[in-house]
Amino acid sequence: MRSTLDTIAAIGLAVGGALGLAGTFVASDALRETLWTIDGVGVVVAAALLTMKYQRLGNDLVAAGFLTYLAGESLLLAGNAAGLEASVPSYVGGICLWAAGLVMVSAPKTFALWMRLTAFVAALLFVVSAAMILWGAPLLPTSAPLPAAGYPFLVLTFVGWIWTLLKPER
């Protein structure tokens, strides 16, 4: 039987994925910051619940990966209200922690291969984006093709995690 906490985590991931992606494409700074704030809270709640779930299951690397992802999301959330340009330092730290968390969650064979692959692609794109910013590229969180190309892979990973949480038990 699915737990209430699994449902809450799935809702947090769904809200986070939808509003996070939407925030990337809106023109209004205030609307983007609002969407990303709600997104960040949803993902932090989901990642906290997933950390506890996988820790209880004895899957320490996956649990630590969700905790690392939570730290990255918190860093992004903290810089969000500063606006795009001012948030870049916390953004770089946040996406580096996202990448580390995604790799940690996906290294074991806990999730289906397609989910693990989308997570690895997202992680790679975020690391490349962070390196480019650190080496002087004038990238913002909304810049295309990078870092924006990583977001769809991240959202696909979220979809997989949601599916895993909500699929009927056999």
Can you put this structure into words, describing what you see?
The structure is a single chain. The mean pLDDT is 96. This protein has 170 residues and is mainly α. Helix content is 76%, strand content 0%. Helix 1 (4-25) packs antiparallel against helix 2 and helix 3 runs antiparallel to helix 4. The protein is globular and about 45 Å long. The longest helix has 28 residues, at 29-56.
Comma- or semicolon-separated keywords:
globular, 170 residues, mainly alpha
The counted number of beta strands is: 0
Radius of gyration: 15 Å
Give the helix tally. 6
Helix content: over 70%
Largest sheet: none
Could you spell the SSE succession in H and E letters?
A: HHHHHH
Distance between the termini: 10 Å
Shape: globular
Q: Which structural category fits the helices and strands? A: mainly alpha
Mean pLDDT: 96
- Uncertain spans, ≥5 residues at pLDDT below 50? none
Strand content: under 5%
